[in-house]
Amino acid sequence: MGNDSPGDRLAHEERVKYALQAMPSEDDISTLAARFKAISEPSRLKILFALSCGELCVEHIVQAVGGNQSAVSHQLKILKDNRIVKARRNGKQVMYSLADGHVMAMISVAKEHLNCND
Amino acid sequence: MGNDSPGDRLAHEERVKYALQAMPSEDDISTLAARFKAISEPSRLKILFALSCGELCVEHIVQAVGGNQSAVSHQLKILKDNRIVKARRNGKQVMYSLADGHVMAMISVAKEHLNCND
DNA sequence: CTATCTTATGAATTGTTATTCATATGATAA
DNA sequence: TTATCATATGAATAACAATTCATAAGATAG
After folding, report:
1. Which of A56, A84, B11, B78 has the fewest Cβ atoms nearer than 10 Å?
2. Is A9 on the interface with B (CB under 8 A)?
3. DSSP conformation class of A66
4. Are A60 and B16 in contact (CB under 8 A)?
5. Which residues lie closer than 8 Å to B10 by C-beta, 6 or more apart?
6. pLDDT above 70: residue A3
């Protein structure tokens, strides 16, 4: 034993205490994790980039990201359930768009992270 | 037929064209998706919140987020492989910390999204 | 009404990912 | 050296998610 000085050990315990205080509730963690999961599939991420240019109907999303209608529809449902995108009906078509600015903000930060090799 | 006016149809085709131009490369999409996936598990998200208070060794991460040593170690590997966290050895311990500010920035944006019911 | 266009959904299959257990590796102290 | 502490990893299982197919539902035109 004696791997830590007493001072170090105390500092570590303090850190754990702070970490526990900063921890969001289980509910918030679940919700956040679900949202990140929603945007963590390549096809769904493509859908978001497509929608970053403005609203699109399902058929055009299919054209923009590839894949088939059923798959895209399932993916849109996941994005909608997690409030990443929103939908409005326009006659026979359903127009999809990004739910709010936070979504693109998050993706922008991620893209920056991608570009700088830190 | 005749579901769209000719003007509308043109506008939609333009939108698809723009969407395709704005689309990142397959490689960038994959990398981004992998990073989002890395932070989309509740336990891994908890690890990031714990590390947002400063670096921690593995044992203390285990205390802060719950779970067992092996599971946490596997999760840390995923986070490290995706450059979400970084590690430095300190004697027998390995200290983990967030890779850079982008990570917390992304999580902060997500938390805002959580708080405002838009 | 029927026919058609567009989107959504249930069920089955397939593919991925997390968790656990046992053990290996790396570092330090005696 | 051996003993111990701290972390990492491989392999198996178990849990979960994505994709496909077939079909249903919603909207409009005729």
Report:
1. B11
2. no
3. -
4. yes
5. none
6. no
Write the pLDDT tens digit of every residue in B51-106: 999 999 999 999 999 999 999 999 999 999 999 999 999 999 999 999 999 988 98
Tokens of B5: 């006016």
Q: What is the DSSP string of B33-46?
A: HHHHHHT-SHHHHH
Question: Which residues 50-109 on chain A approach chain B with CB closer than 8 angstroms?
Answer: 50-57, 60, 63-65, 83, 91-92, 99-100, 102-103, 105-107, 109
Residue B56 CB neighbours (<10 A)? 24
SS3 at position A64: helix
User: What's the whole-model pTM score?
Assistant: 0.89
How many angstroms is C1' of D3 away from CA of A14?
30
A111, A33, A67, A85: CA torsion to nearest 10 = -80
Q: Which two tokens stand for residue A83?
A: 């409030």
**Residue B66, domain extent:** 6-112
What is the pLDDT confidence band of residue A13, given thresholds at 50, 70 and 90? confident
- The amino acid at residue B96 is Y
Domains identified in chain B, total number:
1
CA-based nearest distance A40→chain B, Å: 4
CATH for A79: 1.10.10.10
Mapping DSSP to helix (H, G, I), strand (E, B) and coil, where does residue A91 land? coil
A42 is written with which tokens?
A: 């390549």
| pLDDT above 90 as % of chain A | 66
